[in-house]
Specification:
Layout: E1 10-17, E2 19-23, E3 29-32, H1 34-37, H2 41-53, H3 68-72, E4 73-83, E5 86-95, H4 101-116, H5 119-124, E6 128-131, E7 134-139, E8 149-150, H6 151-155
Antiparallel strand pairs: 1-5, 1-8, 2-3, 2-7, 4-5, 6-7
Length: 176
Amino acid sequence: MENKETKAPVTMRLYSPLVGGFYDSEDYYTSMDGYALSGYDWTIRKALEEELLEEGRPGLAVYLDEGPLKEKVLSMHPAVEIWNYSLWGVLEAECREELSPEETEELKREWYGQMADGWGEGFVQQDIECEEGCRLCVDFGAAARNRIQTEQELKGIGRAEQGQSTGQGFPRMDMV
């Protein structure tokens, strides 16, 4: 019988669109989509790192309900990543083993809850200082639950061999 404790953890990433707002030094507001936010990725990463120092190693996994998912998920940490020229909200979940499709859907529901009503509700209310006198607000919770995708769903990983995607965010181009 295989010992699950000795297996290397598996990292799963869930992606969701980000939106935000920029306040200039005169307090004028400009809404921003993921493309516009991509220029602030390092600033947002730094703010996330500072925020998550308070959460500890398990991060948001401490808020999971008791059950099979909580037993499999070791940690859950919000992050950001630029994909296809746009900044995406990412949940990096470290798991004891691969999640089943049902568990993946449950993790998506949990992540949506954290983005909309839990952690994300507090994060959007914290201004991120980005330039002298300017600030940024980032809303992880603006995405509808059905817009949360696994890395494979977003990037087409696994379909590259079939010629449907290069895995680089661009459609495959065949010479004619």
